[in-house]
Amino acid sequence: MPYVQSGSVTVHFQQSRSRGPVLLLAHGFLMDESMFDPVRKPLTAAGINVVTWDARGHGGTRAPRDEPFTYWDLAADALTVLNALGIEKAVIGGMSQGGYAALRTALLAPDRVLGLALLDTEAGACSLPEWTHYRAFFDAWCGQEEPLALIAEALAPQLIGGPDPAAWTRWITRWRAGDRRAIRAAAHCLMTRDSVLHRLPEIEVPALVLRGSLDASSTAIKSAALAYGLPGASGVVTVPDAGHGAVWTHPELVAPPLLQLMCRARYEPNDSVVGAVAGHEVRMPRKNWTLPG
Question: Cβ atoms within 10 A of the Cβ of 161, count?
Answer without folding.
Answer: 26
